[in-house]
Amino acid sequence: MRIGIDLDGVVFDTEKEYRVYSELYDLIDLKQNSKKDNREIKYQKRFNWTEEEIQGFIKKYHKQIVVESNFMPGAKRVLKLLKSEGHTLILITARGGINKNMIKITEERLKQNEMDIFDKYYWATENKDEICIKENIDIMIDDSCDKCKSIANAKIKTIYLKDAPSYDLEENEYIKVLYNWGEIYRYINEIEKKTAYKL
Prior knowledge:
Elements: E1 2-5, H1 14-29, H2 43-46, H3 51-68, H4 75-84, E2 88-92, H5 101-112, E3 120-122, H6 128-134, E4 139-142, H7 145-153, E5 157-161, E6 175-178, H8 181-198
Parallel strand pairs: 1-2, 1-4, 2-3, 4-5, 5-6
Helix pairs in contact: 1-3, 6-7
């Protein structure tokens, strides 16, 4: 299968790091309590910050978060397992859109952790559904509710890797809500078995 994989909140636990640092920035640096909606995945939408405050957060914490964030539990093991089983892994991420230097830093981190296993890399990508169509993706894994909806609307199977505070999303034939890489591996195996049975 051709599997599309998001990076932040899917391979790296970046979103939890963003949650921690955005809370501290709001309370300590800005000395305010401007949270709007804790279910929002992007800090730009989670807080009622001005553009200047958003840029201040990016300048102070963005690189630190990218460098410090850990791999999601099980991500390395399952991705290597999927690769060894012959799946094509295509990284499709928005990372690099805010700061292009993050691409090089990320490539180094992946290499150092023997995770430079992807067959293709799409950086600074906002319209993931277009890339999924172009690459003939069988299943996309993302942690953004909006991205999952958009990709599913293009009739591409999508795994919504859900974080506890994020929005709920109703499952259908194109959307499956899962919570960890073990569940992802099980689901991909189930799809493969169904496909093989139909053949």
